[in-house]
Automatic annotation (TrEMBL):
This is Uncharacterized protein.
Length: 157
C-alpha cells in the first residue's frame, strides 16, 4: 500500500530529476525502511551525496553526511515547497550547511539559504550538548565551493 503522501513526493522527486538532467538521481521504490527514496550520489556537479526520502506516510527527509533535516507533514503544501527548495538549494549550491565544530566534533548544524546580505536558517540540528565555555568554530559546507567536510551521519543509514 502506498504512503498517503507518496504521489506528491514522487512528483517532486521527478521534478528535481528534470531540473538537473546531468546528475544521476535514482528513485528507490523498494527501500524497506522508507516509503520512497531518491539517492543522489557524489558526482561531477555535486560535492557530496544526498538522500531524499518519504517516511511514515508524511515525513520528508533530507540527509547527507553533514546534516539530517526532517520536515512534516507532507500534507502541507507550504512544507513540501520548503523541502523542495531546500533540496534544490543544496544541489545547486545556493544553500549551505553551517556547522559549529571543535576538534572535528560537530555540536550544531544549520541548513541556511541566502537572505539579502546574510543567511536565514531553515533547519537546525543539534548533535551534542555544548557547555558555554566550549569555544566552537564555524565550518561551511556548500556545493561547488571549497569545503572542509566533517561527517556526522552516513547519508544512507
Amino acid at each position: 500500500m502506498k504512503a498517503r503522501c507518496f504521489d506528491i513526493v514522487e512528483k517532486k522527486f521527478k521534478e528535481m530529476q528534470n531540473q538537473f538532467p546531468n546528475l544521476l538521481m535514482t528513485l528507490d521504490y523498494d527501500d524497506n525502511d522508507v516509503d520512497l527514496a531518491m539517492d543522489i550520489p557524489k558526482q561531477n556537479g555535486l560535492d557530496f551525496e544526498i538522500n531524499l526520502n518519504l517516511q511514515n506516510e508524511d515525513e520528508l527527509h533530507i540527509s547527507t553526511d553533514y546534516i539530517w533535516c526532517q520536515f512534516f507533514s507532507a500534507d502541507s503544501e507550504e512544507l513540501v515547497k520548503k523541502f523542495y527548495e531546500s533540496a534544490i538549494g543544496l544541489i545547486n549550491g545556493e544553500y549551505r550547511i553551517l556547522q559549529f565544530v571543535k576538534d572535528d566534533k560537530v555540536y550544531k548544524t544549520f541548513l541556511q539559504k541566502p537572505k539579502e546580505d546574510d543567511w536565514e536558517t531553515i533547519y537546525t540540528c543539534y548533535e551534542r550538548i555544548r557547555m558555554p565555555w566550549i569555544k566552537v568554530k564555524q565550518n561551511i559546507i556548500q556545493n561547488k565551493k571549497e569545503s572542509k567536510l566533517i561527517s556526522v551521519y552516513k547519508a544512507n543509514n
